[in-house]
User: Fold this.
Amino acid sequence: MSDTPAVAPRTVTIAAIVVNWHDWPKTLAAVASLTASESRMPDTGRVGVAVQVVVVDNESTPPVPDLPPGVELLCSPTNRGYAGGNNAGIRHMLARDPAPDAIAIINNDAVVAPDMLAELATYLGQHPDVGVAAPVLMAPDGGHASSGGSWGFWRLTRYGEAPAGPRRVDFAIGAALLVPRTVMEAAGGFDERFFHYGEDLDFCFRLAASGYGVVVVPTAQAVHAGHNSLGRRQDQLAYYVVRNAWLFAKKHGPGAPIGWAQVAAHLVPVRSWIRRRPTTAAAAWRGCWDGLRGIHGQVDIGHRRD
Assistant:
């Protein structure tokens, strides 16, 4: 890795990617928060940021609402999921000349603080060995939702409290990430085989294997509703959690936290059955079977979207 800073020291150009899937009200709120990002930080020691927002509309259907001036729209006729939708936006912006200094991945159900991107960009500029900078995610009720997490052989530990200072973690939640352009180019974006759920964990794991750190910066914050794109579709969520846990374990092999897969494969369906959710339990068992067989991408398990 180069010792040169990953982003420019004073003014950083950022491409912010937001993927929409049939939920324009929340997407427009996310976009509005990004366009309100503070562009200059006089006398604060933080860099200035110039933000270009790109909305990727998965399974796009009319009508498409008017977007704020300067916001780009990419329409996909099919649902490419979190990974595919973000990759489309990433490729679009990296093809620019000049390309942005950094790529921000923002969930459509996240609302970022005005100084979040500047805080993250400042940290990246000061730490060239860091490949992902993430904010503390707050719940809509004001509580702490996530500050990243760590791998354990038998489980993933998610940090719910905000750290006192920047914290190195094994993974950050993909609801809000800032990645230097050079790192994103080397990583090649997200693995689209996951489709939904787990691709952010895979992304962080790959960066760590390449020697880059993942850091949560507590002075940067965003509000995240959580699991918005699936809504109340617990069956779909259970399926992807379990299947993608196995895909992750099979992809990374020895040394990967494969116990996550084993826990997910057994506890998710059993807990769902105990809670009298037989269709969710069945979806989780199917996810286990499909993961073992290497089934990937989007799978319709036969439940309507709420």
Residues 4-9, 228-232 have pLDDT under 50 and may be disordered. The domain at 11-224 is CATH 3.90.550.10 (Spore Coat Polysaccharide Biosynthesis Protein SpsA; Chain A). The radius of gyration is 19 Å.
